Amino acid sequence: MKVKLKNVFVIYFLVSVIGLMYALLQLGQPCDCTQHLKSTSDLIHAKDKKLVQLQNEVKRLQARGKAPEPQMLPVIYVITPTYARLVQKAELVRLSQTLLHVKNLHWIVVEDSATKTQLVSELLAQSGLRFTHLHVETPKEHKRKESDPNWLKPRGVEQRNLALQWLRENRQLSDGGVVYFADDDNTYSLHLFDEIRSTKRVSVWPVGLVGGLRFERPLVEHGKVIGFYTAWKPNRPFPMDMAGFAVTLQLLLANREARFDLQAERGYLESSLLQSLVSIEELEPKAENCTKVMVWHTRTEKPKMKQEEQLQKQGLGSDPSIEV
Ligand SMILES: *[C@@H]1O[C@H](CO)[C@@H](O)[C@H](O)[C@H]1NC(C)=O
After folding, report:
1. Distances (CA, A) of 64 to 60, 68, 198
2. Cα of 100 to ligand 1 centre, how many Å?
3. C-alpha 72 – ligand 1 centre gap (Å)
4. If 264 and its partner were Cys, which of 20, 101, 103, 272 is the partner (CB 3.0–4.6 Å)?
């Protein structure tokens, strides 16, 4: 009996030691992870395949020229004359936020003022646009008074000419680009800028809400401009609105004398520039052969300040330090 108990104890002891050793050995053993590893390598393989696919897609798009780099697009120089008035900031904010959507654009803003104003300087600095800020005051004898009808004297002539001068002094014939005169009170579809971009010399298109008509437009036959749909002074050389054409930078640099004529008769301002640049047959019709309106000659109503004036008389006018 004694011997048997001792044997049982020895067997128990041995089994325990063997069990303990087996457990310790298992700690150092690698687990059977092949399943896990396999799925990881599958994932990496799939990612590699996707990467190659994407690289091929990029190559394909580059080859087809479908996604040109923005730097490759010709710059659109937008020339905007502007002058101080109650709605000036509102107009410039609206225009600047349209222009923000256009790639490779350079905004040339020219103030009709003796100095650069703080309002325009700060607006441009905060606009997020590439810009040039210029100023020139219209000579007194040519200045239109607030009370004068809008057709009496054309506005913005000296300002547009100064912008042309800036381009001639700061750009070279080898620089690509297209120049567009965009007043601050018009409404511009973004599609217009796609049309402008491909200008070869001078491109044209309809303008809405102008000349006492729903629209004015160049008349196009077989892809060529053969005349103009306009009711007012149809015998003008180029019976078109300022917003209805664009000119390449090259053409303006090659014709250094081309400019707007300060003495131009009413309605002849556009003609005064275009006459020295292009003939009607050479005009490039855009906007689906001039059948689509992409710019509107909207005019902002002059705000009435009746209450403001009354309060000012009582010394209770609105805080002049708050910019509007
Ligand atoms: C413009 O007209 C020409 C000639 O009639 C035609 O070949 C061309 O497809 C037209 N373009 C557009 C964009 O409608």
Report:
1. 6, 9, 18
2. 30
3. 26
4. 272
Ligand 1 atom 4: residue of nearest CA? 222
Which of 110, 234, 237 is closest to 181 using CA atoms?
Answer: 110
CA proximity to 216, closest of 282, 286, 280, 293? 293
The verdict on whether residue 184 carries a ligand-binding annotation is yes
Is 289's C-beta closer than 6 angstroms to any atom of ligand 1? yes
Instruction: List the domain range (segments joined by +) for residue 195.
Output: 70-203+241-278
For residue 93, what is the domain's CATH number?
3.90.550.10
How many domains does the chain contain in total?
1
Q: Which atom of ligand 1 is nearest to the CA of 285?
A: 1
Q: Give the total residue count for the chain.
A: 324
H runs (alpha helix) in 85-141: 88-99, 118-125
Instruction: Name the closest-CA residue to atom 8, ligand 1.
Output: 223
Q: 49-88 pLDDT, tens per residue?
A: 887 887 877 676 666 655 556 668 999 999 999 999 999 9
225 within domain boundaries: no
Reported pTM:
0.78
Task: Mention every residue, 6+ apart, whose C-beta is less than 8 A from residue 158.
Answer: 112, 136, 137, 138, 139, 142, 262
Q: How far is the CA of 222 from the centre of ligand 1 (A)?
A: 7
Nearest alpha carbon, ligand 1 atom 5: 222
**Mean predicted lDDT score pLDDT of the chain:** 90
Residue 171: inside a domain: yes
Residue 54 lies inside a defined structural domain of this protein: no
Which of 221, 289, 290, 294 to probe ligand 1 with, by most ligand atoms within 8 A of CB? 289
Of 102, 156, 152, give the one whose Cα is nearest residue 134.
Answer: 156
pLDDT at 10: 74
* Within a domain: 103: yes
